[in-house]
Write a structure and sequence with these properties.
The chain is mainly α and about 525 residues long. It contains 21 helices and no strands. Helix 3 packs antiparallel against helix 10.
């Protein structure tokens, strides 16, 4: 797309402009993430989620019609400004799952869908882009598809997202602790449609049952029925008593009195801040890995004479020299394995060792991954691809476990559900800012390392960042948050109920009062 715009004078400038388009979304999402999170605390999660989806559809449509680079940048920035769904979605999951034992399974949904989208998205975009060139028998030259060669994939994505908005209006339930009790016309319409569909599906079976019942009743004539069932004779005539009319309508919302919302300044406790910083560090170095891996795999192999200038263990230059098709296979394996690890591996591991222990274990092990990756070029030729897939599986295993673990820790450390939208909004903005700078910084370090003869420079700088994340994880705790307060409140309620039922003083008083009555009754019987 950047090449078709004609702004890049050389091929080396294409990644620069492509990075600008990617960073436009990340910076815009960073600037609006906190605002969307706070707005979801005020008006509810559902309106914000639907607005985010609608904004995504609008930005995709504008992006498909973009005739030049400024319009493309505007479209991506608009998508980032109108889309604060990452933090709000995490808040929604946290409000739906209030039991710690259910969190491992619930927090695998978003990473699974994310991996699925990362596989289907590039495939769909590559297959539908430039339809006049790729499918000349269907799309004729001189039409709108030739003028805007990237409109078709964006149009298809817009239709898909629009369907998501419609489904959300009809079937998505509000999860905000206070707003979920208000009337939702969209949800009522969805339930009515669903009831009609179920009724139509069961209509044939019900008609057969009714016909069978009519045949049975037709065999019983009126004379064969008992007298008591034919008339009302013998039934007592009781005077009817009119029911008193209610003085005022009952308000069902009164059974859920609103809680006092804590001050926003109390939202960012020490553990909340530590989890947000850890989330930002995780987002930074994982995006650097994802951006550097294709470049590392496409870097040409070193020539035989270049190896003599190497000074191991640090000074060496090299890559794999893979073509785009081979790199695509590696990335596809990465996406498929990430889906499987998210669904099957993470819930098992987190149940055994807990979210905090798992996050610490991964954070401490991450530096080894970044230090070892550039040394894959030193492997023998028959083991190099095995090393690539081993590193890819290693990285995917870590990332699919680290992100849900951090999300669970952040959710449980929040002092109140009423502040969770704001907290997740700040976390999403922090991650967006780190993802915006990550590819740019790592790309600069990668290029500088190749020029200086140190191809591992960018990888080792990322390893230093992961060391900071590992040290941060050691001072994190999973105590003192909202979940612990809720459990303590439930225990206090149970103890209060037991004390009310088992009031020993009241029981002794009742027994003492009953003893004189029993004595008097025995005396009367004796007389």
């Amino acid at each position: 797309m950047i090449q078709d715009f004609g702004v890049a004078k050389t091929e080396a400038m294409i990644p620069v402009y492509a990075g600008m388009v990617t960073s436009a979304f990340a910076f815009a999402e960073f600037s609006s993430g906190v605002a969307w999170g706070r707005l979801s605390d005020k008006i509810g999660r559902k309106p914000v989620l639907l607005t985010g989806l609608a904004g995504t559809a609008l930005s995709m449509l504008i992006f498909g019609f973009a005739p030049n680079l400024p319009v493309a940048l505007l479209a991506r920035a608009l998508g980032g400004l109108l889309n604060g769904n990452i933090g709000v979605l995490q808040t929604t999951v946290a409000e739906m799952v209030t039991v710690k034992e259910h969190q491992p399974r619930a927090y695998t949904i978003m990473p699974f869908v994310w991996c699925l989208g990362s596989i289907l998205g590039p495939m769909l975009g590559g297959a539908l882009a430039r339809p006049v060139r790729n499918y000349p028998s269907i799309f004729s030259p001189g039409t709108i598809w030739e003028r805007f060669p990237y409109l078709l994939p964006n149009l298809v994505c817009t239709v898909i997202v629009t369907c998501g908005v419609v489904v959300g209006i009809l079937f998505l339930e509000e999860t905000h602790e206070e707003k979920k009790y208000r009337r939702d016309p969209g949800l009522e319409t969805g339930k009515w449609i669903l009831a009609k569909v179920i009724c139509c599906a069961d209509k044939a079976a019900k008609c057969e049952k009714v016909n069978d019942m009519d045949e049975v009743l037709s065999l019983l004539s009126e004379d064969e029925q008992p007298p008591g069932y034919r008339t009302t004779e013998g039934s007592p005539n009781l005077p009817s008593t009119p029911s008193p009319e209610p003085q005022e309508a009952l308000d069902l919302n009164d059974i859920h009195p609103p809680r006092a919302k804590p001050a926003a300044s109390k939202a960012f406790t020490r553990q909340v801040v530590l989890n947000i910083v850890g989330y930002g560090i995780l987002a930074y170095h994982t995006i650097t890995f994802d951006s550097m891996l294709p470049t590392f795999l496409s870097t040409p192999d070193p020539s035989p004479g270049e190896g003599s200038a190497w000074t191991l263990p640090f000074k060496f230059v090299g890559g794999y020299g893979l073509n785009t098709k081979e790199i695509g296979v590696v990335l596809s394996v990465q996406g498929i394995y990430s889906m499987l690890a998210t669904v099957f591996l993470f819930p098992i591991v987190v149940r055994k060792i807990g979210a905090l222990s798992l996050f610490r274990l991964i954070a401490i092990s991450y530096p080894v991954l970044y230090i070892a990756t550039p040394y894959l070029v030193l492997l023998p030729s028959n083991l190099r691809m095995i090393g690539v897939y081993a590193v890819v599986i290693w990285k995917c295993t870590f990332s699919t476990m680290a992100y849900p673990s951090n999300a669970i820790l952040l959710t449980n450390s929040a002092p109140s559900l009423l502040l969770l939208g704001t907290i997740n909004g700040v976390a999403a903005s922090t991650a967006s800012l780190c993802r915006a700078f990550g590819p740019t910084v790592s790309g600069f370090l990668f290029s500088a390392g190749l020029k200086m003869g140190y191809s591992g420079l960018a990888w080792w700088c990322s390893a230093l960042i992961t060391i900071g994340g590992a040290l941060l994880s050691l001072i994190m705790t999973d105590e003192g948050g909202r979940m612990d307060d809720d459990e303590k409140h439930d225990e206090d309620q149970e103890l209060g109920f037991e004390d009310h039922i088992l009031d020993h003083n009241a029981l002794d008083s009742a027994i003492a009062a009953a003893e004189p009555r029993s004595t008097n009754r025995d005396d009367d019987e004796t007389i």
